[in-house]
Each structure stands twice: as C-alpha cells, then as structure tokens.
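Figure 2 data, in text form.
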Amino acid sequence: MDVQRARQLRSNPTDAERLLWRHLCRRQMHGVRFRRQQPIGPYIVDFISFEAGLIVEIDGGQHQEQVAYDDKRSRWLERQGYRVLRYWNNEVLSNVDAVLTDIGGYLSPPP
C-alpha cells in the first residue's frame, strides 16, 4: 500500500518537489544519494538520504492546518535516527539556492 502510494507521489510531484529533485538527484549534493517519496515506517517522506540520516520535507499550504500531525511525524522520524528539515513550497520556488545551501550545511562534514 505505502509502496503504491509512494510510486503515485513520485509520478505526480509538486512544482517545488520537481525543482528540488533536479538538485538532489544523481548525487549532486556533496556526493550524497537521495531518494524521493520513500516509505519510512508508517510515513512517506519527500526526500531522504539514508547515508546522511537526513529527511527533507517540502510543505504546501495544507500543512498550516496539520501542524500537530507534522510535529508528531517529525518526532517519530527523529526517534528513528533521522534529522528532519522542512521547507515551504514557496521557499523552494522563490529561493532554491538558499534551501540548497541550508541542506548542504547538514551534509558537509564538520570542519
């Protein structure tokens, strides 16, 4: 069920997801591999790097009404050992470079 839903989501990305994926696919960010629309436990995450332990979520306007659900979801994912980054659709669409810089900061090895 989750696998079918994930495939459906991969086939119909939002504009923000499509734009960000262009920068995350093919190990373009610090050589780190990302997957998109990946089932993790009871959830499907937008983007994940298993090797970096990083999840990137792109939120649309509907997330303003489901803050409690998103918090619960993020806490569960963090308990599984992942760091969860969240960005709004309009952040990605209007300033993808800043979003990429922020994500890159979590992928770079410490100095």
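Caption note: The helical segments are 2-11, 15-24, 67-79, 89-94, 96-107.
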